[in-house]
Amino acid sequence: MFKYFTSLVLFIFITSTSVYAKDEIYFLPKDSQIVKERILKIINNADKKIDIAMYNFSYKKFHKALKKASKKSVDVTIIYGKSKLKFYKKLKLIQTKRKQHIKLAIIDNKFAIFGSANWTKESFEDNYEIINITDDKQKVKEFIKIFKELKEEN
After folding, report:
1. Does residue 13 lie within any of the structural domains?
2. Is position 138 within any domain?
3. Cis preceding linkage at 29, omega within 30
4. Is residue 12 domain-resident?
5. How far apart are CA 60 and CA 58, in angstroms?
6. Residue 104 phi, psi dihedral angles, 5° rounding
7. Does 10 reside within a domain?
8. Based on the structure, what is the number of domains in the chain?
């Protein structure tokens, strides 16, 4: 009986972790304000690590949030193609060797933010873009692998 109960509890736990995983999809520019606030909240709540791979990264609000996170000892790494910003010295910066179209942020290995939008003012205000935010453990794990490959290549 105990073995059956233990198996049942384990089954419920395993299946419930994917049930409670959340995917949020935003369409820009319509959802720009909502998704900007959501991304800022996730960055501001980061405890340990923020990894970003983004071809064009120049949105000042996100830059300021990353600078603030690094000041509270969050490890911030950005793989980028171009940027108009003067990056803060504590941010680990890797300029790509070749053009990348990936737009990805991984926060504390818990959240992945990805989609078509570079983190530029134009992407959030003028362009048609899609951003997906997920806390699905399997998806986040796959994105972590992708980020490591990008980092090793550059």
Report:
1. no
2. yes
3. yes
4. no
5. 6
6. -145, 135
7. no
8. 1
Mean pLDDT, residues 34-57: 95
pLDDT digits (tens, 9 = 90+) for 95-150: 887 778 899 999 999 999 999 999 999 999 999 999 999 999 999 999 999 999 99
Nearest 5 degrees, angle CA 108-CA 142-CA 52?
A: 45
pLDDT greater than 90 at residue 18: no
Place of tokens 């736990």: 13
Q: Which domain holds residue 47?
A: 22-153
**Among the listed residues 15, 32, 20, the one whose alpha carbon sits nearest the alpha carbon of residue 128:** 32
Token duo for residue 61? 């609000």
| Separation of alpha carbons 21 and 111, rounded Å | 10
Exposure string of 78-90, with b = 16+ CB inside 10 Å and e = fewer, is bbbbebebebeee
CATH, residue 108 = 3.30.870.10
For residues 43-54, average pLDDT:
96
Residue ranges of E strands in the chain: 23-28, 49-56, 75-82, 92-95, 103-107, 111-115, 129-134
